[in-house]
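Lecture 7, part B: from sequences to assemblies.

Below are the input chains for today's worked example.
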Amino acid sequence: MWFFTDEHRLLEKSVRDFAQSVLGPRIEHLDETEQTDKSYFKKMADLGLLGITAPEEYGGTRMGCVAATIAMEEIGAVDASTALSDLAHSYLTVNNIATNASEAQKQKYLPKMISGDWIGGMGMTEPGAGSDALAMRTRAVKKGDKYILNGTKMFITNAIIGDVFYVYARTGDGRKDISTFIVESKFPGFKMGKKLKKMGMRASPTGELIFENCEVPDENLVGGENQAVGHMLKNLDIERITISGISLGIARASLEVAVKYAKERHQFGKPIADFQMIQAMLADGQAEYEAARFYTYGSAQMWDEGKLTGSSSRALSAKVKLVAARMATKVALDAIQILGGYGYIKEFPVERYMRDAKLMEIGAGSNEMMRVIAARDMLGDL
Ligand SMILES: Cc1cc2nc3c(=O)[nH]c(=O)nc-3n(C[C@H](O)[C@H](O)[C@H](O)COP(=O)(O)OP(=O)(O)OC[C@H]3O[C@@H](n4cnc5c(N)ncnc54)[C@H](O)[C@@H]3O)c2cc1C
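Predicted structure of the full complex, as structure tokens:
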């Protein structure tokens, strides 16, 4: 991007080198065996990736949204699973704590999370409450100097391996009577549920969090009671823009494989790159990738300049996520088409790219919910 600073370019290069040399060689195996290697959090911490949006006094680098999106694109281009786990840790959890928590909570949790000693995740979705997150049933009841949590969270990234979760729970009967708690996995009554087997993002663990009379000290309530919706709104923009970086990475990787293959593969006595129908898929994919890239980084730059405020910014980040996610799935599917039978087998990575890309259309708010937000904004109803 023309507006990247020298610092951004340096970050881009160092994350790209790290992703290609460290993450690349082991992702096929982890994807195949559906394993996670959490030691890579330490390696990402060494590069300063776990606190890109957090203040320096807690170990962060406070580089902002453009930098965070660069990290997501570069990791996503090689290993979208690790990008997703990093997103859940760094933006859904660390950034939430940095934005909303008390000084004591920040001092207790951020340094250990930014150094990669503790892995974080965010628990909002429940078995019966996904898109309609405010219908959640997990409940926190105050008893003495503790809150007692009961309920189940579903589809939580970094479950199984996580040490600290930023958990949403109901503290009243009104729809918006929801609070956030920092819950350590060693608290009494906290249980990891089953690890979920997935189509894509297979090296990023997804699972349930179960709270059975889970005892959370009242000092771990973030802000006050019933403030979660306000907290959530503060971070939605950066979460949806940074996750779009993963979509960009997957699309870029898909195009790189497709271009190389189209030049090497011969049919009818010439490279398939000479066929205009193949060229059309390549050209459309590149144009759509670049359009999504301008949109994503342009919005990230607006975020860094403090220009994303109010309901229209919520619609902007929703549209960015929608455009980038749809683009990634389409580009990855076309890459499979360009590789023909070889695109469908595991010898080439494009089938993994497509499986990973599909999650971008569901996680952190589905395409349909992004459209709901965009349309409401257009109709003056957001
Ligand atoms: C791999 C993975 C990782 C995840 N990580 C996390 C995490 O770390 N933390 C967390 O809290 N959650 C996480 N999620 C959950 C994710 O955010 C939800 O799956 C998502 O919000 C959709 O909710 P749902 O799956 O319950 O689908 P539902 O809400 O049941 O939706 C089903 C379908 O109905 C559509 N739909 C629903 N409402 C409407 C409407 N009003 N208009 C039109 N269509 C509608 C949806 O778009 C979808 O197509 C993760 C999910 C996955 C798969």
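Note for the exam: The mean pLDDT is 97. Keep this in mind when comparing with the next example.
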